[in-house]
Automatic annotation (TrEMBL):
Pfam families: GAF_2 (PF13185), HD_5 (PF13487). SUPFAM superfamilies: GAF domain-like (SSF55781), HD-domain/PDEase-like (SSF109604). GO terms for biological process: signal transduction. GO terms for cellular component: membrane. The lineage of its organism: Bacteria, Pseudomonadati, Pseudomonadota, Betaproteobacteria, Nitrosomonadales. It comes from Candidatus Methylophosphatis roskildensis. The chain crosses the membrane at residues 20-39, 357-375. SMART domains: GAF, HDc. PROSITE patterns: HAMP, HD_GYP. Keywords: Membrane, Transmembrane, Transmembrane helix. This is GAF domain-containing protein.
Length: 983
């Protein structure tokens, strides 16, 4: 109920409007009627449900009797038949075993029989028991394949009873015979024998616990025709317990079959019906099976209350119970105890009550709003206005105010609220547009357009204050009826002698200035041509744009015919609008400054990477140019795979940044690896060491020659031999030096010659473990020092040349960046033979990994930067230019479909720039035709994107790049058609 529904007057009880009275009375009557009907219906249904439950209890009693008879009838017939079989006349174990097939068939026909047996008047006993489960076989220590057990006791005068266990399989093949001296069972002492002996009719024992199987059952027995034997069958009553469990009238109902005085015969959990105390087993009583409600029923066990429904309380619940005597001729009187929770018996009644209540509530929910709506028609316009006020409070301005009323005051209120709603909506829309516009020029144009729309001015312009705080520069210009045709306004210098005093006053005082412009005013001449205002007099309104710090960032100038055209109300709205406009301008200028700073830092980093290498200078600057040229070609394509391709401003920014940072990981790559011009180069070229060693060998040969001549040798012959040895050494050095350059591939013969040359020896007389770094000393310490002088080979791969890779340098397979790289065991292998034997280029496998690792480092470095949402794909673009379209690239082995188009463009740009670069130490810059032919093969081998390569050739992007960055001699003829046909 809202506040307008109640009226309070001092001294008078609170009064409510008519529609409130009607709605409350109708609601109360409906609720009372519905409640009474539901209560009466629930009471009658509950009574009916209890009556039905009592009938169900009686039905269970009748079905239990039927189950008993169904269980007993086949056993009675079987025992009657066995009483006339030869088994009763057999006087030895062998003769009794002849009846096994008949007994097996009887057991197979009735799985409820626990055992069949015969007791003889001389004390002999013969029993067959089916071994139906593993537990029973284990109990009698039977063989695994045993399916039947025969227990036999034979007595003879003057001889100890002979007990025997015989085990048979399913086909009655004997498996084992166990003599059991301790087995002296005498059937004549058992109740079943005594009750049947000497009588010509069937007898049945009261239920009891079988000694052998611990199951509850009963025994049927009958004397044979000649009276010398009694046959019997043990019937297990477990099926009766199953029948009781299946007849539960509710989930928590309890049922038990018992005999006097409360001995349980069958229960849903039959295991509870048997108790063992002091080695003896017996049937449990009702108060021992863990069902308190049945024990409670037993207290009402008397002839007067048999068959009478009882209301009980047990375990905190109300129960309905019944004790009924089972009808019929049974071996002993049996009784059925049944109890069920009252709430479960009344579940349907409760459900119907809930449904009735829901229906009543539903009807109430439908009818009451209709009554309420009809009662409130008189106040409908006010309610609409209240909703409009609530919509304004929620900043919901989607619909205009259209409320009308015959009451003058309400109609005027509706008109004022409509104007208020429209004004606030326009103000918020302008603020949202300003804050959402990312292009600075469009922001200023939009601000000017909205201001002119609100103010009704003829024209307007925006000046921005420059960094010197003395210069106002025109940034946006517009007429009310469209864009201005001339935009050549000059900057305005602000100062004491400025010819624009109105603008100076607005800047210095931070207040809105309204000034008349006559024909002699310099400001009139300033604006007239650009705004096409002619020679008419006008009024200038200058509103300062003030940022958060209270500093003026610019001026919004409006030109109107007269001050009255704008008016005080519109001027107030314009001033309010200029606040968020100034903040938006400041934010855009700050954002642009940050972008410019970020771009400068990126270009500085790329320039530093290029500058640190004397060979690859310019690579990080040329690749962005080429990548963006290829991207422009894709955007301009009107057919083919890229006819729908386009990049917006944010995507261009992402590609620009990624292109400039594509090699930022090289800051982690050692300079000598990046710049390695020869195979032996590290921080210096070790070919000079080899040269010096050969110089030593030549000097040693010279010394040997002089010594031989001094010893009386033939000087001419020895000098000839010396020159020959020198020539050989010179040739070998030239070969080693050519291998060091890495310009051509080494074949196996060249590698073998290197190894032969390496076997030359020279004498080192100085300790090579002094004057070196501690790291190198540690590597040399892996081998013990040899006494000087030491014979060294000319070329060697020594242990100290092997630089181990630390654990920190090993990239785990489950790294978060998805790198899939084969990491060499060593970080560096500086072995001389190992390096000289590199097949192609100058880099070893370890150094090649170090070079390639700059890609992984690029991705790692960039993924750690907090890029905004539209730049989140910068790491992927920058780090994917060494991937191959077939998924064999580096470092993540991504396939073509896993790479974005800009990333694939970066790969082509990087490869083409590298092929044509003339500043690489290990190769000359290739011509256009050579470079494109190599890339065509890469296209065929699925190393680069075929569609992008075709676009690269077809659009002539390669030629545009060549004209800007390649030497004239590199620009040769290119067969574009052949390149496009490749692959």
């Amino acid at each position: 109920m809202n506040a307008s529904s109640a009226i309070a007057t001092p001294g008078v009880p609170r009064r409510y409007r008519f529609h409130v009275h009607v709605a409350v009375i109708f609601t109360a009557l409906t609720m009372i009627s519905g409640g009474l009907m539901s209560w009466h219906s629930h009471r009658e249904i509950s009574r009916l449900a209890l009556s039905v439950s009592i009938e169900v209890f009686a039905q269970i009693s009748r079905e239990t009797v039927a189950d008993l008879r169904r269980l007993n009838a086949p056993i009675e017939t079987l025992v009657d038949l066995l009483a006339h079989e030869p088994l009763v006349r057999a006087r030895s174990l062998d003769h009794r075993l002849a009846s096994l097939p008949l007994l097996r068939e009887a057991l197979a026909q009735n799985a409820r029989i626990s055992a069949l047996y015969a007791g003889y008047d001389n004390g002999d006993f013969f029993l067959i028991r089916p071994l139906r489960d593993v537990a029973l076989r284990e109990r009698f220590a039977a063989p695994p394949e045993a399916r039947y057990l025969v227990q036999s006791v034979e007595r003879a005068p003057g001889v100890e009873p002979l007990g025997v266990y015989l085990f048979f399989d399913g086909d009655l093949r004997p498996l084992r015979r166990d003599a059991r001296v301790e087995y002296r069972f005498d059937p004549r002492t058992r109740g079943w024998y005594q009750s049947a002996a000497g009588k010509g009719q069937l007898s049945q024992t009261a239920p009891y616990v079988f000694f052998t199987t611990r199951e509850v059952g009963t025994t049927f027995a009958r004397a044979g025709a000649d009276g010398t034997a009694v046959v019997g069958a043990d019937l297990v009553l477990s099926e009766l317990a199953h029948a009781l469990a299946s007849q539960r009238v509710s989930p928590s109902a309890e049922l038990a079959l018992f005999a006097e005085p409360g001995v349980v015969i069958a229960y849903r959990e039959q295991g509870r019906a048997v108790r063992e105390e002091g080695g003896e087993v017996r049937l449990a009583r009702l108060d021992e099976i863990g069902a308190p409600v049945l024990a409670n029923l037993l207290t009402h066990f008397n002839a007067r209350e048999l068959g009478t429904p009882l209301q009980l309380s047990s375990d905190g619940r109300d129960w309905v119970g019944l004790v009924a005597a089972l009808p019929g001729n049974l071996a002993q009187p049996l009784y059925l105890a049944v109890a069920a929770p009252r709430d479960e018996l009344l579940t349907d009644a409760q459900r119907i009550l809930r449904e009735q209540l829901l229906i009543s509530i539903g009807l109430l929910a439908i009818v009451v709003p209709l009554v309420w709506l009809m009662a409130r028609r008189v106040s409908k316009p006010l309610r609409w206005l209240a909703r409009e006020a609530e919509a304004i409070r929620r900043f919901d301005f989607r619909t205009p105010v259209v409320v009308r009323s015959r009451v003058l005051e309400i109609d005027e209120l509706a008109g004022s609220m409509g104007t208020l709603k429209t004004t606030i909506a326009n103000f918020i829309d302008i603020g949202s547009a300003l804050s959402g516009e990312r292009d600075f020029d469009r922001l200023l144009a939009h601000l000017l357009y909205e201001t002119l729309t609100i103010s009704g001015a003829r024209a307007g312009l925006i000046y921005l204050l420059q960094d010197d705080e003395r210069t106002l520069r025109p940034a946006a210009l517009r007429r009310a009826d469209g864009p201005a045709k001339h935009a050549d306004l000059a900057d305005i210098q602000v100062g004491a002698q400025s010819p624009y005093p109105a603008l100076v006053r607005a800047l210095e005082r931070r207040e809105t200035v309204v000034a008349a412009l006559d024909r002699a005013d310099p400001m009139h001449r300033q604006f007239a041509a650009a705004l096409e205002a002619g020679d008419d007099a006008a009024t200038l309104v200058a509103v300062p744009l003030v940022n958060r710090q209270g500093h003026v960032v610019g001026l919004l100038c409006l030109v109107a015919g007269t001050a009255e055209e704008i008016g005080a109300e519109r001027l107030a709205l314009i001033q309010a609008l200029c606040g968020p406009a100034a903040l938006s301008i400041e934010s855009h200028r700050l954002l642009q400054a940050q972008k410019d700073l970020f771009a400068a830092l990126i270009e500085m980093l790329a320039g530093a990477i290029d500058a640190k290498s004397r060979y690859t200078g310019g690579h990080c600057q040329r690749v962005p140019e080429l990548a963006q040229m290829l991207a422009h070609a894709a955007c301009e394509a009107r057919d083919g795979p890229f006819r729908d391709f386009d990049l917006d401003g944010e995507q261009w920014e992402a590609m620009h940044i990624a292109a400039w940072l594509h090699d930022c990981g090289k800051v982690t790559t050692p300079d000598y690896v990046v710049d390695k011009a020869t195979k032996l180069e590290t921080l210096y070229d070790r070919i000079h060491e080899i040269r010096m060693r050969i110089e030593v060998l030549k000097r040693d040969a010279h010394v040997e020659c002089l010594r031989a001549i001094a010893g009386g040798g033939d000087a001419k012959a020895l000098e000839g031999e010396l020159r020959s040895r020198w020539a050989e050494l010179d040739e070998e050095f030239r070969f080693v030096a050519s291998c060091n350059q890495g310009a051509e591939s080494l074949d196996p013969e060249a590698v073998a010659r290197l190894h032969r040359i390496a076997q030359r020896t020279w004498w080192r007389t100085l300790d090579d473990r002094i004057g070196i770094s501690w790291e190198e000393h540690d590597r040399k310490s892996r081998t013990p020092p040899e006494p000087l002088p030491v014979r060294e080979t000319l070329l060697a791969d020594k242990p100290e040349h092997r630089v181990e890779r630390s654990i920190a340098d090993i990239m785990p397979a489950d790294n978060p960046w998805g790198f899939r790289v084969d990491v060499p065991v060593l970080k560096y292998n500086r072995g001389e033979l190992y390096n000289l034997a590199v097949g192609r280029g100058t880099l070893t496998a370890e150094e090649r990994f170090q070079i390639n690792d700059h890609m992984a480092q690029t991705i790692i470095m960039l993924s750690r930067l907090p890029f905004p949402e539209h730049l989140r794909n910068v790491p992927e673009i920058a780090g994917g230019h060494h991937e191959k379209m077939d998924g064999t690239g580096y470092p993540r082995r991504l396939r073509r479909e896993q790479l974005s188009v800009p990333a694939r463009m970066m790969a082509i740009a990087d490869i083409f720039e590298a092929l044509t670069a003339v500043d690489r130490p290990y190769k000359r810059g290739k011509t256009l035709s050579e470079s494109l032919a190599i890339m065509a093969r890469m296209k065929q081998n699925a190393h680069i994107d075929p569609d992008l390569f075709d676009l690269f050739v077809r659009s002539g992007t390669y030629l545009d790049y060549a004209r800007r960055f390649l030497r004239p001699e590199q620009i040769d003829e290119v067969d574009a058609d052949a390149l496009l046909r490749a692959g």
